[in-house]
Amino acid sequence: MDSSTRRRRTGGHGRTVVLGLAALGALGALVTAGPSARAPAPADRAAPSRAPDPPAAAGAPGTRASRIAAVPCPREALRVVRMPHVIDMTRCDPRSALVEGPDGLGAVVPADGSSVAASRLGTRPGEGMRSLVVQVDLAKKLVVVSDREPGAPREASGPAATRGPDPVRAVTAAPPSNPPAPAVAPIPACRDSAYRHDGAPIPSKRRGRAVLKWWYYPGDGRVRRLSVAQQKRAFTRGVRIAAEGRNNCRLGRIAVRQVLLGNTWRPPGVISSGACGLADGRNVRGWMRFTSGETILGLTCKWFRRGKVVEGDVALNGAGVTWTTSSRRCRGNTYDAVGVAAHENLHHMGLAHVDGSAHRNLTMFPAIGACEFHWRTLGRGDFLGLKRYYGAR
After folding, report:
1. In 3-state terms, the chain is what percent helix, strand and coil (to 5)?
2. pLDDT per residue over 220-239, tens digit each?
3. Considering only CA atoms, which of 82, 84, 88 is closest in space to residue 52?
4. Are 93 and 68 in contact (CB under 8 A)?
């Protein structure tokens, strides 16, 4: 009896039997295939250094099932030994916790998804400037800690030089704060066109002109050899030098307007140990008493998101450091408060350090010696870096 005859005799029940057998056949195929038929789970992102894996887990980074872990990161995951260092947020949550770099410079991981860059200027021989950048990527659930300044650095060796992003690299160690005679003769400031961008300028709310609004924090008023009036004057002069691009090279002025909004009793977003704390939405400059004493001259903390600055705070050390605002009254181990304030403010405005002893006459050279006052006037490279961001007037 052929199959068509059987189907006619069984009627509707025959169709039910045939469909049932087909379903059983498909189920058997699935059982035979077993677990090997599943798609492989995506591998974790490779990184030069990764935080230890505490128990947590809601899927691999980048998958729909991945979620930020509910457990905070252990302390060993927040101590960075080698940079760049990657923290997987699906394994532990580092937000609002302090991350410390190999040299002790640290920053609190922002909780709102922004990133933070810390720049510390020291006084100890061989230290110079140190940088730490904590970049938060909530989409990928990753936090990357490095010593590379934010954004895409750019360099120029002359007015017509070809400018382009540098490869990712660590910022080289700065020369000593009181360096010996350099092997390469310094280029005169008005002939040195070198500069570097950090990729995060202050936003321009008005077309063609950026506005820098800031507050002054006086601290406890106790700064060695500076009166209360001189302490504030150091910042007002330093901010004005950076915002206007003051120079002795007849290059004009930068098209940035700075506005001092007044005094505030809310300190800069820094920690007394010499680390960046949390942002509060205000650009604050002022004096802090760092627990490390005379080893820190100043600290700049800069929060940024999508290539734009969210906030920038600057703190100069009022404990253990001797300051001056006059080149005629400098002696011994004394530092220029006006020049250091100008240098730190240029960080907020988007300039990065220019390494190499040939560039030591530029304001963005990463070290300053006692009784040196050349940071008060920008070099050609400093001015060109600002002009590329904000234009001139």
Report:
1. 25, 25, 50
2. 999 999 999 999 999 999 99
3. 88
4. yes
